[in-house]
Amino acid sequence: QVQLVESGGGLVQAGGSLRLSCAASGSIFSINAMGWYRQAPGKQRELVATVIPRGGSTNYADSVKGRFTISRDNAKNTVYLQMNSLKPEDAAVYYCNAKIAAWNNGGPLTENEYWGQGTRVTVSL
Q1: Using CA atoms, how far apart are residues 27 and 122, in angstroms rounded to an integer?
Q2: What is the pLDDT of residue 106?
């Protein structure tokens, strides 16, 4: 029942910008953490940035510090990733991740980790 849907991926030239969005839906009690991960072909999925919706504390991978900004709109259950000064090495499928307490299909309240389907970011030279 809980779903994460990403949007905003696409093709951009090196040095350009993109903004990714991830909206959570379902019978949500609370979103305790949200973040972005990315996976390039042949590579392990890696953490890009996280945010704690309550309070808004953030954490970034060293490779994106100063270039990417994660933010959230708690009222919309949405997290954003503003990506500036994009580099070819940023090209990957970006996945939204969230730790959400929810009532799934009318069941008891449980906290689980959810993943979006991914949105592809391509950076050209």
Answers
A1: 33
A2: 83
